[in-house]
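User: Mind token order:
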Amino acid sequence: MTRTITRRLVAGFLGAGLGLLGAAPAAQATAPGDTSVSVGRLVLDPTDRGYAGRLPVTVTYRGSAAADLELTVTEPVPGAFAGLTPTGMCFTGSPTPVRKIYCTVPGGALQPGERRRFTVDFRVLTSPRAHAMSATGGRVTVGAANGTPADDASDFPTLFRSTTGSLDDPRPYVWDTLTDASLAVGSAVLARQGDGTWLGRLPVTVRAAGDAAHDAWLEPTLPAGVSLAGIEPTAVCGSSCEVAGGRFMEGEERTVALLLRAPAEVTPGDLGTGSVRLVATFGWGDELVDVDPADNTAAFGVTAVPAG
């Protein structure tokens, strides 16, 4: 897909840009052993939108001159990374299946002997359970922001608190590896606009039944003479449109509208039949496999109706 290729190119440029931060005047080269990192444990609490929690991180810098440092976070669960507090600049790598997140340590350059504390924030969009759960694989590394190998690393455990408040006897959290998404569409009725052209909305409802991390895109095939003009709520849109709102919570349903346009010379009446295909992606990766591709595509009719 063209979108996937573009995303990978952008990711490469962004990753290179993050490494170049080490060339800034305040970010001097660091020597091996100049930095270290320690972390607490990550406890995710049930919320009205999955689980959320913060991992406490302490970075110590022992270099001889002020330096920007780079933090790499490996997610314990695909799509779980939600940012830093205080905010720091971050770029996301390709999921394999979890992602590595590349960030600058928030707060700017560290001074010699400085110890800096902050949190890495996580959210897992799965339905809270009555029993505690656990996940492994979380890792934080730190080093100079100049593309050199990381200086120190620390693994961290992840616990999901039960809906009753317990962390005892956690069971391994097993996330879905296939998406289970579906869509339903209405019909598109185009109305004459002031400039003579035709414009209308196609309602589309997208639902995610599982907890595989993904974003949703809508890829329409339109009748001759009808073109895609955008999406509401507003999101990235070209030959396909992203569904606004980011990753889907398990069981979440969203309704959006594709905006369709036709030229002024179109004759009122039935303009034909089109279809919409739901495409699920995650991070910079390719299209994901769905458990039932048959309910990822739906047909609709387009009609131009004159006023009055």
The first helix runs from residue 2 to 20. The first strand starts at residue 35 and ends at 39.
